[in-house]
Write a structure and sequence with these properties.
- The chain is an alpha/beta fold.
- It folds into 2 domains: 2-176, Vaccinia Virus protein VP39 (Rossmann fold); 189-372, Rossmann fold.
- The protein has helices spanning 30-36, 57-61, 73-85, 117-128, 148-157, 214-219, 240-248, 261-274, 316-328, 345-353, and strands at residues 2-6, 9-13, 48-51, 66-70, 93-97, 108-112, 136-142, 161-163, 170-175, 189-192, 199-202, 230-234, 253-258, 282-286, 298-303, 308-309, 312-313, 329-340, 357-361, 365-371.
- The strands form 5 sheets. Strands 5-4-3-6-7-9-8 form a 7-stranded mixed sheet, sandwiched between helices. Strands 14-13-12-15-18-20-19 form a 7-stranded mixed sheet, with helices on both faces.
- Strand 8 (161-163) and strand 9 (170-175) form a beta hairpin.
- Helix 4 packs parallel to helix 5 and helix 9 runs parallel beside helix 10 (345-353).
- 42% of the residues are buried.
Length: 374
């Protein structure tokens, strides 16, 4: 539990999923505090848009109606939970995913600068379609994360841009919409998947959007085949693992799960474009791991788990994925993962399942398999 003090109020804010460590990670940073020090237009002047509010610190502290735009299902759930925990009105915050249209003529826009520059560019291009010269646009991040390329992106898409002095190792960017000339660009980036006839399409916030990552490439050589049942590509990203699972398991239903709307949209697009005949047995869900999925049902869960949340290195996401996989697998069903050798995932899998088998390994990665037994 951590607290953020603002004027006369103290807010209790949590990260989500709830951290179990004795010293949980803080649910905001200095850039959030710096943004909250700024003088904003009054609500009567137009909508307030907040981008990339990781755990709801901005939505909770700004006691006024606003739109919260994020590509993260987890961030949105954290915002809702923190509003409830602080007895704040949830209805004043409208949640929008990263592909939804924005409200017109916002009076003010606050942006937490995301790690992915491609996502920032997508959001600034979205904003360009609705902003006016009167819109107050302020972005914030840790000082070390604001580069010349960041400022140039604001100037190229929106207009005149300047920065603040550093405060507690955070900086702000102030930008004014002036409609500079801008070339259009495709909504997705695409590339051919080696060894297949497929063209892989990627929305801006998808992991390894410019090419196949080496862990997935190794994993694709060691996937199960001829399963007659239900398979999940958990943390699906652009869906290349699920695509191959569709091909290798022609009688299976394949579910694509990710907490990123852009990832799930990329997976859907890739099945539609590359295996349209398999759309009827493909299912797409934005969620935290397998939350909401029935227990004791799946035949296989395939996973390349992440080991960070925003800029924090953590294993709690992988742990959540493994626990959800065990709950949702039927007896005899398997969890199969790929991971860096040094992460010791075999210990977690053996603790949960009572067994863990090495399927394959190379100098950097291991493919591991655990079976749910009675």
């Amino acid at each position: 539990m951590s607290q953020l003090e603002l004027s006369q109020r103290t807010l209790t804010l949590h990260r989500f999923p709830r951290m179990q460590e004795e010293n949980p990670l803080q649910a905001w940073d200095a850039a959030d505090e710096y943004l909250l020090q700024q003088t904003l237009p009054v609500p009567e002047q137009g909508p307030l848009l907040v981008f990339n509010d990781s755990f709801g610190a901005l939505a909770c502290a700004l006691d006024r109606p606003l739109y919260s735009i994020s590509d993260s299902w987890i961030s949105q759930q954290a915002t809702r939970q923190n509003l409830r925990d602080n007895q704040l009105d949830e209805d004043r915050v409208v949640m929008l995913d990263s592909l939804a249209p924005l409200p017109a003529a916002p009076a003010c826009v606050l942006i937490k600068i995301p790690r992915a520059l491609a996502l920032l560019e997508h959001q600034l291009r979205q904003l360009r379609e609705v902003a006016t010269p009167e819109t107050v646009i302020i972005a914030g991040a840790r000082a070390k994360e604001i580069h010349n390329s960041t400022l140039q992106l604001f100037e190229r898409i929106l207009g005149p841009t300047k920065t603040s002095l550093a405060w507690k190792k955070a900086r702000l960017i102030y930008s004014t919409y002036a409609a500079p000339a801008l070339k259009p660009q495709p909504e997705t980036l695409s590339w051919p998947l080696e060894g297949t006839p497929w063209q892989i399409h990627n929305y801006p916030n998808v992991f390894s959007r410019s090419g196949l990552d080496i862990g997935a490439r190794f994993f694709m050589q060691h996937l199960p085949d001829n399963i007659d049942g239900e398979i999940v590509d958990l943390g699906c990203g652009n869906g290349v693992i699920g695509l191959l699972a569709l091909e290798m398991n022609p009688l299976a239903e394949v579910h694509f799960f990710d907490e990123s709307w852009m990832a799930v949209a990329s997976s859907r697009l890739n099945v539609e474009r590359n295996r349209p005949q398999d759309m009827a047995r493909s299912h797409f869900q934005v969620a935290n791991a397998l939350s909401g999925f029935p227990s004791d049902r799946l035949h296989a869960v395939l996973c390349n788990p992440p080991f960070h949340q925003q800029s924090a290195i953590t294993d709690h996401i992988a742990w959540q994925m493994f626990r959800d996989a065990r709950r949702c697998l039927q007896y005899g069903g398997e969890l199969r993962i790929v991971g860096n050798r040094h992460l010791d995932y075999h210990r977690k899998m053996k603790k949960l399942f009572g067994n863990c088998t090495l399927v394959a390994s190379n100098k950097k990665f291991v493919v591991l398999r655990s079976v749910k037994l009675r």
